[in-house]
Amino acid sequence: MLAIVGGLTAALLWGTATVSSSHASRTVGATSTLAGVMLVGFLVAIPIALASGIPHGLAVEELAWLAVAGTGNVLGLLLEYRGLRIGQVGVVAAIASTEGALAALVAIAFGERVPIATATLLAVIALGVVLASIAPDDPGVAGRRRVTAAAAYGVGAAVSFAVSLYATARVGQVVSVPWVLVAARVVGVGAIAVPSAVSGTLRLARSVVPLVALSGLCELGGFAAFTFGSRHGIAVTAVLASQFAAVAAVAAYFVFHERLGRVQLIGVTTIVSGVAVLSAVRA
Length: 283
Fold this sequence. Notes:
Blueprint: H1 2-28, H2 30-52, H3 60-86, H4 89-96, H5 99-109, H6 116-132, H7 140-171, H8 177-199, H9 209-230, H10 234-241, H11 244-255, H12 262-282
Helix pairs in contact: 1-2, 1-3, 1-9, 1-10, 1-11, 2-3, 2-8, 2-9, 3-7, 3-8, 4-7, 4-11, 4-12, 5-7, 6-12, 10-12
């Protein structure tokens, strides 16, 4: 039961973060949105990390993996926000949700053997990405370009998230979850928020501040819920949490009145289903 609660909570929080950050990105831009999300996350995560205890005796290898985990998370969010700014939430979120599947490919690159079932599911997910990237009927040249660009950003986000997930798994044996979250926020504040503020390009209109704050809190809360649920059942939690893309797509239908083309809908459904099954198989 606790695994179900954790997985559903993570899906709802991450889905909410996706929709709210999409609206903010379309208003003030991806960079400013990410800067705000990182600042909020940093202020919330630091006290939690300090309360969990300061890690000591970290080797250079652990510090390197921690840096990779943080950088991958920040880059992934930046690419996702750029995709959400110009594309449909349902498509970008679905493609970004393949992060777990791509993390499996990263593991393969580092020598892990993969069963035939896993390889088959990866191929199915790849097919879903291709279908989701196809523009609806007669969208015009500009429309096709936006769909293609948004899908490309989604793929880039998924790859970055995958690298971050793998790095987190490597360093997770030594560093607690709160400090991994802090690492990403330190990278985000140092590489995105501070330079934007200094250059005067940081734009956070009063109307989007609540959305940015909500995104920052939901990103952290979703990770915490996933961690909690996985302790009581990794498979169930992973399958349910991966459905954040479906949650975002449904919310976008009501909030932005988004309608996917028939082929796109098939692609998104294929991705969501494939990721869910793969999460169960891998777990």
